[in-house]
Write a structure and sequence with these properties.
This protein is mainly α. Helices cover 59% and strands 8% of the residues. It has a two-stranded antiparallel ribbon. The longest helix is centred in the N-terminal third of the chain and has 19 residues.
Length: 121
């Protein structure tokens, strides 16, 4: 069997590191849809885009149906990963990351850094 490229090994180290992180933490497990939602919200923040509206997520249909996305957003809110912010007149609801979500994403970033730091040059 051929040896895998170093990048494959790095990715697999990342997968193992994140599995260990999720096992060791007291954070509720996130399914693929919830993780994708969290990534989308965080990407908006990092890219400096305007706050993401609940409607923008629910009706995007890239991740799932509106009903599924609404349920998953509720689960993320219950787990204290996101919170809903209102605009000045209360008609629009924005999605905001909580400190818990920011810490979780930072720990995932540490898993990537740890895996990549062991990669041969």
């Amino acid at each position: 069997m051929a040896k895998l490229p170093a990048q494959c090994e790095t990715y697999l180290k990342f997968v193992r590191n994140t599995a260990k992180l999720k096992e060791a933490s007291k954070l509720p497990p996130l399914d693929e849809v919830e993780q994708s939602l969290l990534n989308t919200i965080a990407s908006h923040v990092v890219e400096g885009k305007p706050s993401l509206l609940v409607g923008d997520i629910i009706y995007s249909k890239q991740i799932g149906s509106p009903a599924t996305l609404q349920r998953r957003l509720s689960k993320l809110a219950e787990a204290d990963f996101i919170r809903y912010g209102n605009d000045s007149d209360g008609r629009k609801k924005y999605l905001e990351l909580t400190p818990k979500a920011i810490d979780y994403i930072a720990k995932l970033g540490e898993c990537i850094t740890a895996a990549a730091s062991k990669m041969p040059a």
